[in-house]
Write a structure and sequence with these properties.
The complex is a heterodimer of chains A (340) and B (293).
Chain A lengths: L1 H6 L4 H6 E14 L2 E14 L3 E5 L6 H9 L7 E10 L2 E2 L5 H7 L4 E4 L13 H12 L4 H14 L5 H4 L9 H13 L5 E5 L7 H18 L2 E6 L2 H7 L2 E6 L2 E7 H6 L4 H8 L52 E4 L2 E3 L7
Parallel strand pairs in A: 3-8, 3-9, 6-7, 7-8
Antiparallel strand pairs in A: 1-2, 1-4, 4-5, 9-10, 10-12, 11-12
Chain B lengths: L1 H18 L1 H4 L1 H18 L1 H4 L31 H36 L3 H13 L3 H11 L4 H28 L2 H8 L4 H38 L10 H8 L8 H28 L1 H8 L1
The chains are: A alpha/beta (340), B mainly alpha (293).
Chain lengths: 340, 293
């Protein structure tokens, strides 16, 4: 852990436990209309044992940020043009490909949205876990097979000895997502990136999978980056939340602070557009409020604040880009009229 | 335990499927029986017939089918039954070799093309070039450059087949590459060669097996065409194409000399194609189910 301090000139308190720190990350795509700035100067970090929720609409850059961390942005058309991705202070963007491969799956694990398609249909689930283990750990074939069974048991799959020999199509969606989690955690990574891990699952299974992720985190102390568009999932699982809009971080806060006092108008828009069970008495059960308008095209972004065209509070000032300011300890927002 | 009962439930149809393989897949059963019979006749030909396929018997020319000569005799008095079942050896040898060689080459080239970006256009343009020439024409041209033998026939038929396999494999690789599970494999740190061999190749096998049977069938047919045109195996070799070709002059006098080898040829091609369809349905149960209903 000595190299940590040397590489990090930032606030000493945060860096102590930050496993993964993204600094001013910029990822662009060469689209037909020009350059799409999918991730435009995003910074966040996640500490050991912490769950960071990354929230935003489709296309806000939350998944591209994660892919950039893994250096899996398809190139062409994508390209990471700036910033740093520090894993324990080591910049992943500067590693060569073999070194990066040792990071993938070993130090950073990843879970995908679609459990139906994220397992290879022609390989048994055991084989797929063994693959990962064999890649990164010096284990014999037998030890790897044992590890696969052990991982399935850890993610609460009944009869793991038999299940390892089954193919993905023999498992239900929830089971497959459990296998994915087992695969992603089989090498005890320090960071787990979960890209919408529960979106494709029904609600009861969602709760089980979230519970499982939480349990695995307690067991291993893995730092989790949980990408989702579901504020409910965030409220239940995350410690801290980053809200993204059109490739930028617009708000960052501890989860309670975010739900108690959202500062950015976009965050507030997201909150009120969520259906609630405890709507105040007398309030009409009518249409759900929405955020008017659409996410701007990433290749034709408005000047200044990107949310301004949809923002009910937009003013003249919003033609200039709002800086990210700390309004309460750990609570940042990028808005001229934050909290109004 | 609700878990165990549902397990048992889930497991039963699997067992049933395995034991009922032959009755549930009649096409495979029929084609295996058909091809098995043809293969048995070809392999055990010396035990089945006492006639040598090459021995001339001038006194026995153009005899119709009888107890002594089941399929009659040809213009040189050679036993047609013997020649037909020996001909099966050539056809099978050529069909299997062409299928094996073209699939082997096609897989390697197609996987490389699908995996390596700069190689892809080169491979594809060469394939396009080869495919723009009709297969038989190319085979005839190749045969005219070399001395006729079974080996050269195999090569001449293989070359036009290779680009078809290359295209199939490449397109499969390109599709599979985009699947989420490939991204999952990459995100666990898998290297490209391992990705290709461990994750992509198993996905390619099923369509390849099916394609191989079609290649086998078409190779048997092309061999017969080449033999018939006089551009195939040397004329003394009793291949089905050769037998039909040399007896066509006598078709009105002794049609059995053409009918029997022709029927064997048709049965063999039918059997191989049925096997291909059956195997496809077996290995891709989703598709089979849809068609079955």
């Amino acid at each position: 852990m000595t190299e940590l301090g040397a590489a990090e000139p930032q606030s000493p308190a945060a860096e102590e436990s930050a496993v993964l720190r993204i600094e001013d990350l910029r990822t662009q795509f060469l689209a037909h209309g020009g350059i799409a700035r999918a991730v435009d100067g995003v910074s966040y970090h996640v500490n050991r044992g912490e769950t960071l929720g990354v929230v935003g609409e489709s296309g806000c850059g939350k998944s591209v940020t994660a892919l950039s961390v893994m250096r899996l942005v398809p190139d062409p058309p994508g390209r990471i043009v700036g910033g740093r991705v520090l894993l324990h202070g080591r910049d992943l963007l500067e590693l060569d490909e073999p070194a990066m491969r040792r990071v993938r799956g070993n130090q950073i694990g990843m879970i995908f949205q679609e459990p139906m398609t994220s397992l290879n249909p022609v390989l048994t689930v055991g084989r797929q876990i063994e693959e990962v283990v064999e890649l990164h750990q010096n284990l014999s074939a037998r030890q790897a097979a044992e590890r696969a069974v052990e991982m399935l048991r850890l993610v609460h799959i009944p009869e793991p000895q038999r299940r390892v020999r089954e193919y993905p199509h023999q498992l239900s969606g929830g089971m497959r997502q459990r296998v994915m989690i087992a695969m992603a955690l089989s090498c005890s990574p320090e960071v787990l990136i979960a890209d919408e891990p529960t979106t494709a699952l029904d609600v009861t299974i969602q709760a089980q999978i979230l519970e499982l992720i939480r349990e695995m985190q307690e067991r291993t102390g893995t730092a989790i980056v949980l990408i989702t568009h579901d504020l409910g999932v965030v409220a239940e699982t995350a410690n801290r939340v980053v809200v993204m809009y059109a490739g930028k971080k617009v708000e960052e806060a501890p989860v309670m602070a975010l739900f108690d006092a959202p500062l950015h108008p976009y965050t507030r828009g997201l909150m009120v557009s969520m259906p609630r069970l405890d709507s105040p008495a007398g309030q009409e059960r009518g249409t759900l409020p929405e955020i008017p308008g659409m996410v701007p095209s990433l290749s034709a972004l408005p000047e200044g604040c990107r949310f301004a065209p949809r923002c009910p509070l937009a003013a003249q000032q919003c033609r200039e880009e709002p800086p990210l300011k700390e309004y309460a300890p750990g609570h940042f927002a990028a808005c001229w009229r934050a909290g109004e | 335990m609700s878990a165990t009962t549902s397990e048992a439930h889930r497991f039963r149809p699997l067992v049933a499927r395995r034991s009922g393989l032959l009755t549930r897949h009649p096409r495979i059963t029929i084609s295996v029986l058909l091809l098995g019979t043809l293969a048995g006749l070809a392999v055990f030909a010396p035990l089945i017939t006492q006639y040598d396929p090459m021995t001339l018997a001038v006194t026995q020319r153009l005899r119709p089918p009888s107890a002594a000569h089941w399929f009659g005799t040809d213009a040189y008095g050679r036993d047609t039954f013997s020649r037909t079942i020996y001909g099966g050896r050539i056809s099978m040898q050529i069909g299997l070799s062409v299928a094996a060689v073209s699939v082997a080459i096609g897989v390697v080239v197609g996987m490389l093309g699908g995996a390596i970006r700069w190689l892809d256009p080169i491979v594809m343009r060469i394939s396009d070039g080869l495919m723009s020439i009709p297969g038989i024409l190319l085979a005839i041209a190749l045969m005219s450059l070399t001395k006729a033998s079974v080996a050269t026939v195999i090569i001449a038929i293989t070359i036009p087949e290779v680009p078809r396999v290359v295209r199939l494999v490449r397109s499969l690789v390109l599709t599979i590459r985009e699947q989420t599970y490939m991204q999952a494999a990459v995100s666990s740190g898998t290297r490209l060669p391992r990705l290709m061999l461990r994750h992509i190749l198993p996905n390619v096998v099923t369509p390849l097996i099916v394609q191989a049977t079609y290649i086998c069938a078409s190779a048997v047919l092309i061999e017969a065409y080449l033999g018939f045109l006089g551009a195939g195996t040397p004329p003394e070799v009793p291949s089905w194409g050769n037998i039909i070709a040399e007896n066509r002059t006598f078709v009105q006098l002794a049609s059995w000399n053409i009918m029997f080898p022709g029927a064997f040829l048709a049965l063999m091609v039918l059997g191989v194609n049925m096997l291909g369809d059956g195997v496809r349905d077996l290995l891709d149960p989703r598709l089979a189910g849809r068609i079955g209903k």
